[in-house]
Amino acid sequence: MEKIIDRTRRSAVKIPSPIVRTAPTPLYLLSRLVRQSNFKVVLTGEGSDEIFGGYDLFKETLIRKFWSRNPDSAWRPSLLKRLYPTLPLAPGRAKFYLETFYKTGLSDTNLYYYSHIPRISTTTRVKGFFTDDIKNRIGSYDSLSVFGQNLPTGFPRWHILARAQFLEARSLLAGYLLSSQGDRVGAANSIEGRYPFLDYRVVEFAATIPPRLKISGLKEKFILKKSLTKELPKNILDRVKQPYMAPDSNCFFAPNSPEYIQERLSEDSLNNVGIFNPVMVAKLREKCAKLSHAHLSFKDNMSFIGILSTQILYQQYIDDFRIPTPPDRASFKVRHDYSS
Fold first, then answer.
1. CB neighbours of 94 closer than 8 A, spacing ≥ 6?
2. What is the pLDDT of residue 2?
3. How far apart are CA 192 and CA 203, in angstroms?
4. HSE-CB of 299 using CA atoms within 13 angstroms
């Protein structure tokens, strides 16, 4: 565990933007293993979930839209439990959590970001850790309004699944999966990723496929799986989709955790950076340490990783930033061959 934590620290330096997940770390280690195996180029499946409806987010959206037609229904929200049968909570608590989380903005189907309301609501709470100065600087700035200004013509008339796919591809795919969790960790080990599903011809074709063929009932990537029935084993086609996840805050509270965590999240360091409220962060640290072997909420995990990664980046690129010294030009010998 200590080695994993140390690798997490070294991987964070290679991603020059704050992150709220530790997922880039195992992918960095995987890309290093690929390089050690003498491969330089890999094929990877980014984009398939976005264009063929593979994420649970898309099924959640369809369920929420169905639920919104009868918000008082007792059985419609139970469909959510089918998406997460292994949720690490007691049955009664799991039902309460799912219904509470996904009922946020349930009837706001006219909002362009309807599909992402529950997640946006959770992520927004991270702002509660900002200092008063940062909150005042943000003021009334509305990032959702800004993000919604450049939507395609006729976007409100798109099918709700198509809208969800577009927003997911435009935000998480472009801004995170292909950068912090993709190209940057691959390039750190001189690995080039190739993305067949993101070929513009594949994307254009996928956009013409009716939503009912992308998600049939609650079966994701329906048409893609049908097209590969002869090529893939049945147990692969029929298995329950497992999200790619890595340990979050709990991996930083294992025995022999590195000192940099204490340093970066100390009151002096937080005051020096001036972004996060030291009192709020101290309470979060205490909560994460106390529940390090339990199931923490997404909000707490994202908040902790976001705060820690921001503090580390500030140290690396502002406090301790050093411009590399260029090699002595005299050490280079340029040879010119004019014989041809």
1. 81, 84, 87
2. 43
3. 21
4. 15
Model confidence pLDDT, tens digit, residues 111-157:
999 999 998 988 888 899 999 999 999 998 988 888 888 899 999 99
In this prediction, what percent of the chain has a pLDDT beyond 70? Answer: 86
Instruction: At 242, give phi and psi (nearest 5°).
Output: -110, 125
Q: Which two tokens stand for residue 272?
A: 């020096």
Q: How far is 276 from 267, CA to CA, in rounded Å?
A: 10
DSSP letter string over 243-311? ------GGGGGSTT--HHHHHHTSHHHHHHH-SB-HHHHHHHHHHHHHTTTS---HHHHHHHHHHHHHH
Q: What is the pLDDT of residues 290-319, one digit of tens each?
A: 876 667 788 898 999 999 999 999 988 888
Per-residue pLDDT averaged across 93-105, rounded?
78
Average pLDDT, whole number, for the chain?
86
Rounded CA gap, 100 and 122, in Å?
12
CA distance 299 to 93: 17
**Concatenated DSSP letters for 21-36?**
-STHHHHHHHHHHHHH
**Cα–Cα dist 93/112, whole Å:** 31
- How is residue 248 written in tokens? 């979050």
Whether the CB-CB separation of 156 and 112 falls below 8 Å is answered with yes
Query: Any idea how long the chain is?
Result: 340
CA distance 166 to 164: 5
Is 281's pLDDT higher than 70? yes
Single-letter amino acid code for the residue at 129: F
C-alpha distances in angstroms, 111 versus 61, 63, 165, 323?
A: 13, 16, 15, 46
